[in-house]
Write a structure and sequence with these properties.
9 strands, two-stranded antiparallel sheet, 10 helices, alpha/beta
Length: 280
Amino acid sequence: MPTLLQALIQAQSCGLDRLDAQMLLLHALGRPPQQRAWLLAHDGDALPAAAQSILNDGVQRRASGEPLAYITGHKEFFGLDLIVDARVLVPRPDTETLVEWALDVLPANKLIAEPARVLDLGTGSGAIALALKATRAELQVSAIDVSEDALAAARENARRLQLDINFQQGSWLSGVQEKFHAIVANPPYIAAHDPHLVALRHEPAQALSSGADGLQDIRQIVVNASARLHSGGWLLIEHGFDQAESVRQLLCQAGFASIQSRHDLNGIERCSGGRTAKNH
């Protein structure tokens, strides 16, 4: 029976980096991902046979390119523990930039007559909507996704986290009648033939690629968003690393004002947005 240290070394010999090996070992042992220090303190402990079997399966799946979050079933986002699987994209740290921007622009209750309303388009696991609601409980948060499977995952996360989100099935803004103080979206933005899609083959393709230039869905959102925003309301969109200028141009053509972009943790222009005219 191998020790925990030997199990880690074996996992890394299969091509995994040290952090992934540690996360998979903690998962196999039924321990939370925050206990990496525990692994170091117990590296001489024997690995139980049942945990060895779970670890072997996880190592094989990770070595084939499957996301770690799908294997463990969990992903942290904005301090929330989300359940994720192949029905939804794995939430990325870069997307926290979008959440922070939305929190900055959504009006406080004392400034408006009604609770601020925000709509999350293409919610997937519910990550953005849930992060907004968890941070500011007074917000009225709605979330839309075209995939019923994704909505089931998002509703499951909302139940676990005891957060009240209005989930709806739909394609972007089609059928939406209400108006919002902000609309946020992390739509598909990878070009259909981009070679990066190969590395993302385990994640739902319809949530990744968007036409020949990756901007097909963003165009549709930008053209239709102003009619669903209050005067001075914001549209905020996450996009690809090289799409900021194109998205700003689309926002300008659609009549948005205060158009700008925000950088992610790597200094890349990751999100772009604008607001409707005050007399809208």
